[in-house]
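Pasting two entries for a bug report.
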Amino acid sequence: MNAATEKLFPLLEPVLALARRHASEVDGEARFPTESVLALRESGLLGLTVPAESGGLGCGPLEFAEVVSALAAECGSTAMIYLMHVSATMPLARAAPAAMPGLLSDVATGKVLASLALSERGSRSHFWAPVSRAVAKGGMLRVRAEKSWVTSAGHADIYVASTLTEGADTVDLVTIPATTPGVTVSGDWHGLGLRGNASAPVTLDVELPSTARLGGAGGGFELLMETVLPWFNLGNAAVSTGLARAATDAAITHATAATFEHLEQSLSALPTIRAQLARMSIEVTGMRAMLRQTADALARQGEDTMLHVLGSKAAANDAALRVTDAAMRVCGGAAFSQHLGIDRYFRDARAGHVMAPTADALYDFYGKAVTGQPLF
């Protein structure tokens, strides 16, 4: 951790302890990590990136990445819930809805857990292209949408949702309190990985004041590309990095402790095992370096920022697949028996890989960017 993040450790450590204690249970039962999320609320870390003038901690991308990575090493589901909260908070900080003047302060105090409701059944993983359309009438907005894969569904206090602007092919972002009539969680989440993040479908059939919109009409796409995407990609890369680091640490510990009694040597005495561990460790070092580079690029907003944003998630997702796969092979049956936790890192890494924008889509965007083609 850098010096700034180390100052956050007294706030973070109790959250990490609870995440660690309940991670196996959260995964096994596919339940929401209530204990660690409550600790996040009480710690002030929900306001990590909220400006100080709104009562937040005023931290930047590097601190965010470090916190998410540390959470992921203990509980991937908790890390993803936190990542989605911050990704929803950042557009609120940039273009707060006039209908909710105290919202950022409530986020900073832990009163509000936020999440994104972007993907739709009709456009699937193309989260930037909703097919639902708002209808405006008398200062109100009617939003009907079938949202997919909404993290913290049924647990978040507000949802930042997307919809097409009435009468135009532009996008609006709106803030919807979870208690709004017409917000319905459509099912439970029982996935292969990240089993505790409550990523369920949400049906919206709501009426909102037009002032629930973030920014002006049609300004949602800019917020998605310039705010939501960079922070989400950075955080998702941080989740992959934390999972890969935890899998590597667990594999090293096991290989060092496990012994061949008939040979009187540890598993790590085998050159092939040491080579695998070395490759894993080197890969994690590279992931952490790229994560810091991306956080720095996002903080300074240079011409290369978008390349870092596009590349970080794709590269980290792929690296996490390789590292967690190697950890499973190094530890063999011990990994499959679940007591090492490596199987959880293995499954969680694969869930992050297919989250929109998927790694394959990001490679395409990156290729367009480096060849001078428009992304959309």
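Entry 2 (this is the one that rendered wrong in the viewer):
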Amino acid sequence: MAGGLPPLAIAPSRRPQLDHVADDALEATSSAEVARAWENFAAGEDVEAGVRPEILASWYRCRDRYEVDRSLDVAPGARCEDVQRLDNGVIFTTLGGLGALAGREVERDGAVVTVTDGDGRVLGSWGDPAAQRRAELHNLAPWSSWSEECTGTNGMGTSLEVAGPVTVTGPEHWCEAFHRWACAGISIRDVVTSAPVASINISRWNAPLSPLTPEWLSKAARCVEKEIYRRAMFETDKVWSEFNKKAGEVGVPVMAMDRGGNAVAANESAASLLGLTNDSLVVAGAIEPAQRWTPDIPGLSDVVRWAKERAREPAQWSGYACLPLGNGDEETPVTFRPVVDSDRLVGMLCYFGVQEGEPYEGASEPSAGSVPQRIIGIRNDRLVLLAPTEIRYAEADRNIVWLVTERGRIQASTRGLDNVERSLAPHGFRRVHRRFLVNLRRVAELERGIKGELFLITDSRSHEFVPVSRRHAPELRRMLGV
């Protein structure tokens, strides 16, 4: 699998002598402006320039959300509950082989290659023995936790928070003890859920990394994600087969979903209930992950997360929730039954109008104290700090979320509309469409379309139209008192 990867040269320079290096060797290649910004930011000040946006966004997470101690000099051990489930065993076998291959390549450059699971727990380490000994002083070794939440800004942990390769050099690290390391990491993501399942990272002590390292990491990630794609297609076959078998046995609307809550297939009655046309890919069967449809049903994502957690325990578990499917106030019971392959959840079948199994009791609201008072956005080379009141609405373009504000259109530093919604919901934002969140306090006008569609206008001067899906319209009218 790794045969298609180019040779990995970490740096064209000679290998550093780890025990006899000048104290300022790496700092000379790092920006003094970044070091000053780190000092000021760690002291509680806000910084908006002079630091790369992805690094500054990470610092805010470390300081304000995770409250990581910047004096930490050793990564903590992984908690017992962090033990990785076996359903990713094939992926980690593939990734481990790639890490071992890369380790041999970088040994002459005094570097270390590490791989982690999706929680940032180190699973393996390869490379120069002297560099590995140096890394072990900071517990950069198997069974340690290098997520941002545990260890601050670093190549592994920060790559799990964002898409694409991440480099962290010198004082860009949140913890001062790691300021003499240069590292680059990339997350491996599930093609079904877009969630990180692993990462691969290259670290070098007191010496820079080659600018070609991120490109190599991107190619390595694509190699591993091919294996994830093959597994996803195997899972789709299982879900599709179960749907074809069960949908014909019952006389109710049935929809099949993958592990991420995306619709794979629906029978005719389910398609009609959900407002799908006959030419929808879901009716024919959305085999490719990118072609699947996310149902626009209020509260469905929370119910799916609950059902996935509950389905891990009993062998024949089923549960139901009452969800608003139409224009009226009445809710319809939906029963969820897991599709399992070798004790591993690969999808779910949803039976509309059926009430069976464990009832869903609702998700608890996030506490106000845990919600950040500032929303972080990225524009050009700057980090933008936004008060929730500045945001009129948020629009999703796949996993990228755009915030429409008084200061223009700004990309949210957090990926995924569900994640942005959790931050904004306590500030008066509500989902009105599968792609839109709107600040109800900023709604100035409502307008009906030719076919009865409902649109929200948040700025009467520019006539911004935010579409409201028919399933969200009744709840929205109640909230607005119209």
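Dev reply: Rendering is fixed now. As a check, the viewer should reflect this: Residues 433 and 469 are 5 Å apart (CA to CA).
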